[in-house]
Give the backbone structure.
Amino acid sequence: MSVDLEERLRTMYAAVADTTEVREEPVAVGDVPEPHRSIGRRRAVALVAVAAVLIVGLVVVVTRHRSAEPAAPLKDRPFAVLTWVPNGFAFANATPDVQPNTGLRGFPGQPAGVTFAEYDGASAHRIIVSTARSGAIAPTPGTGSVSLTSGAVAQFTRDTEFVTVAWVQPGGYATSIYAQGITDDDAIGIANGIWFVTPPMWQQLTAKAGFPQLQLDAWHPPGDAGSSITFHMSGSVQKGFMLTTGGLGFTFGGSPMWRSTGPKCSSQWLGRSETDRRVLLFGNGTTDGFRVTLPDGSTRDVEAAAPPGLPVHIGGTVIDAPRSYLSGTVETECIGGRP
Amino acid sequence: MTRIRIGLLGIVVLTVAPLAAVWVLSRPGPRNDFTERVIASDHATTLQTGNGWVLETMQQQGFPCKRIRIGDRATMCTGLQNSPGSGDTITPQGLGHRFVLVAIGSTAPRTLALFSNRSAGDLHPMLQTLAGTQVVAVELQPGEEAWGYHVLDSKGGVVSNQSLLPP
């Protein structure tokens, strides 16, 4: 602070002091005597303080012990997002909301409640993923059919330029992929990697042209290790999404594991240390549970459940295994999966 | 009582005002990446000209580099030798200008499609350099927030897809 400013402040403080007069105010007749009023005020202050502490404590307790918001069921997720975007394509356009009564490729008539997202590529090629309220509609028979990871049987049609994959997601929406400039395998890969989201999530995902990198749909798998494992869907509409946990990321549509039909069971060590022997178990959408072979040859059954809006089933367990066992995969069998 | 209140108010004001002034003056100013003084004899090649700025390439210690110059000030000259398909992005700002500067290794024609709150994929042809890397600078308008960009090949296929939003 400069000398001038300090001097000016001193002068002003002195002036304020000179003009300040301290005088006792007379007590008005009928006023509560000062000591009682003071005690009353102190009590009020104490009560308010106690109430504030209680409220803050309650908020902390509730926040700490609150489990993740229950994820919306598939029927409340009318928007379809590609988790795997093929090379050369990027998110271009989407319906901001559910559209009434428009066509849905691969389905007859004009189903209600249609949504779509478009991804554009070279030479004006595009991939359009659409959904509609399923009701009683079924896809138009295609030139062939294919079993998807979710367990749905999709109608598949390929002409010289376009490929259409149409199916009704179990418990969810009528869905179709209509694409140009991709292979049949890619079209099935895309169909196997659809993530269904709610309207608020869709607004969040498609804001700013789909560029925000987001982490949504926190979820714990079932199983004895499940409560210690939190999955999220991480990524952007522009580039696609992975199911992530503990530094690991899992893809669906682009992964060869999910491209072929037939039973798909796999395991992945989440921890490989002395104190962390958690294992993740993966199966397709018809998997009810997993049967894991333990190091001593015995088996353990682990429950399976689907992450919100995804076609796969996951479980988590802890295997008390010797160090040598950790270098391999855990022998896992899907229970209730497709034969 | 009123005098006491006025007096106390005066003391508070007189105490807070100098502190507020010190806080305001000590805050960092707007970022300025145009800190390099341009020397007249540096043999820079102009690649792109904008409103009061130029995008230049030059050699620095034997390696090609790119910079944006405004008058006698420029950004640091950053590398210009991207391997095929690999890109980099910098967002220099200062002297009243803000830019998105994108480079990608390619000898085939490339175009930048910029997405922002003012641009729904406006196209900017990228400029070929002798180093086998293409570059383009896009000046952002006041209040414009860049969201991301695509680098497109000659058929409109997406070669690179980058977010410019903070994670």
